Amino acid sequence: MHILDLPVEIFVPVLKLLASGDLLRCATVCSQWRDLTLDVKWRDHLVHWVDLLRVLGLVERSEEGGRQYHWVPEHCSIEDAIAGTGWRRLNELRKKISRLRIASRLMSEDIDYMLKLQHVVESPHRAFCPNLRELELSFGDLQPYEYDFLAGGSLRQFKLSWTSETEMRTRLFAGTMERVALRSPMIEHISVHRSDFALIDYGKFSNLRTLNHGGHFSATSWIKLCAGCPLLEDVNIWWIQGDLVDEEAIAEGPQMQQLPLLRILHIEIMRDRGRVLSPYILRTTNMPQLRVLKVDLRQLGSEEADGLLSRVRSRSPLITTLRVHGHTLEWGSFAWFGKLRQLDLYGRLSSWKIEDLERIIANLPNLAQLYIASNPDGGIDRSRPAFTPAIVETIARRCQLGELRIPLNALETPWMPEPPTTTAKFGKLVGLTLDPLHIEAKAVEPFAKYLAQLCPNVIHFEAALRHPQEIGQELELPRHPTGEEIGNGWVMKTLFFDAQRKDHVSG
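Now predict its structure.
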């Protein structure tokens, strides 16, 4: 039986499983599929704009190649165009589309031509796709304002990936955001990737709930965000490339700002730049509903960072997830975030003491995940890791974690001929990462047996091994693992799970 002879009730569900691009390619293969394919639930698919126009026979790739397309037939009269089958079909489908992505561009003159066609069938003040809820524009060198006419009041999500490298493009970017704010005042989710424009005003989107911003950012932008977006729940500012926090805005701006509904705040910088923004935001913003805080404090000294986090602790008592990158604080300070379930520390271990760990464990009864790792720039002195197997046993006795990631020094413990026995066990631990694990090559097997006793329920295990070149020699500074270490890491993983299975059988 030919696939086109299948009953519609079988064939249509199959088409619904296809991604938009595949669906449209099916329509180009066989003209008999076209009407059926284009009617399959556009509300459930992310439609690729140029692909749709190609299927309808309205555009083709330009002679310049690349991702540019032009209208076919080229700029015929408006009367002839709207009488054509392709345009009539597009005029029907545009009202059904709810999710739209544009990555390939039309030539500017072809967009102008399409605007003229739209004005024949739709008011210039209304969107060409009146039910569009999600619009995604992804370009390298395209001016995105040309596609504003597609979206309107129904839009809820706007995603823009666009490099605005020149002053002219920066102005166009700002204009785009202003027009989108006017056309689509109900937008709840904005994602901007690779923006070089630091003074963007998200405060114009009063209904905004989720913001993902990658690129330059400033204190001025944050002030406007707090003033204009009281419904914000999730803010992710990442890939910050420079310290663009303007001194005038900090000096003359409000000393206290409010984001009353914010639950997630994530601020990530690009290498060694953009470090001023994090402390500025934490110092001036009250976030009483905050649950997740991920922040970079690498530029602060111990006393300043401790004071800043103390302020956060009193203003945001509901925090359950805390990730601090580059801290130099007294480790016991984290014990006062009493509701923490996840604590990730990327910083220096030079001042770490066993008392700090005991204080954290004693004051955080709900802690389920503990990550302690180095900064990419070598913030942890890997040559003298402070964690030993004895300390891990202390954690097992005092705190039943679900996930644990720490650096470990197993060099000082005698593993031969048999590993030491342990009475402690992680009853709930399912994920264990030892990075780095400093250990002698000959101790890998007995250490794996020891871990199997200590962690009987672990199902995810990783270890980044580091062997000393000679017994008694100082461990090397941060470096890539050798081939032997990588190989022994895989061997140890296998030995660990083998020993774990044998313990289960014998038990």
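The longest strand covers residues 431-438.
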